[in-house]
Amino acid sequence: xxxxxxxxxxxxxxxxxxxxxxxxxxxxxxxxxxxxxxxxxxxxxxxxxxxxxxxxxxxxxxxxxxxxxxxxxxxxxxxxxxxxxxxxxxxxxxxxxxxxxxxxxxxxxxxxxxxxxxxxxxxxxxxxxxxxxxxxxxxxxxxxxxxxxxxxxxxxxxxxxxxxxxxxxxxxxxxxxxxxxxxxxxxxxxxxxxxxxxxxxxxxxxxxxxxxxxxxxxxxxxxxxxxxxxxxxxxxxxxxxxxxxxxxxxxxxxxxxxxxxxxxxxxxxxxxxxxxxxxxxxxxxxxxxxxxxxxxxxxxxxxxxxxxxxxxxxx
Length: 315
Ligand code: AMP
Hints:
Elements: H1 2-12, E1 15-19, H2 26-42, E2 47-50, E3 76-80, E4 98-103, E5 114-117, H3 124-135, H4 144-157, H5 168-177, H6 184-192, H7 196-208, E6 216-221, H8 223-228, E7 251-257, E8 262-268, H9 274-279, E9 283-285, E10 288-293, H10 296-314
Helix pairs in contact: 2-3, 2-4, 3-4, 4-5
This protein binds adenosine monophosphate (AMP).
The site of adenosine monophosphate has 17 residues, from strand 9 and strand 10.
């Protein structure tokens, strides 16, 4: 069993360094730091680090560790929630002695000596809790902080238990996790409170979106618009779900203009969108995927592809 191999590797190494993907979300932080908490609480003599660029909007969950390259010698590296190697935050991940991948996205890059990829899991945090259940008779412990982090990731990646990826097991894990001592209300505030500039940009999007006959919508947020609303492109994640509740919508795409690229964020309620993302060197889940393009002409091509997928889906 793969979890058994992961448990043996964790027991074997004295230094364990945990990575996750760039532009982290609560599932990336939750799985990475939740696993760190489990290991360091269960094995206090081990050195366990969570590395990667800080994401200020997730500082309420955890702070990253700053480590020297030497730490990687003889270390076990575990990468959480990251389908392709290019998106691993902190590319030193391959300096370690052993590499493990734990993820719930389709297996784009097969990196690591041990790979635990389960696309039926709602989130990587769900897998981390599975891992704890496998390992608890082996002395692994879960403290309140780990429970909070894992719960945060499950909530984040299931859209508060709304997305179809939410299974009976997801609810069972959540039911066990809420028995730990952490402040759920504060956690929800941390994840979902938005600043007034984001709220105003949301309003602008809701006033201006267009919906094609096939149920497709595309939103372009240019640098000028983002500046006008004083919104950093990195904070655009809080806007993507805004179209999801609109009747008739099948799939939608946000284009967010950054300094040197246009970020593509695709969402769907039926048509598969990760193959469209893959066509533009991106990836993700069938119903939530992303990519980057260089020009607005390329963005037009993404719109055409999405339109086609919506038409094919309706027929
Ligand atoms: P996002 O729109 O960034 O929330 O991403 C939605 C899903 O697509 C997540 O599962 C991401 O991991 C994945 N994703 C986003 N951008 C990329 C990319 N450039 N390459 C591969 N996967 C991506």
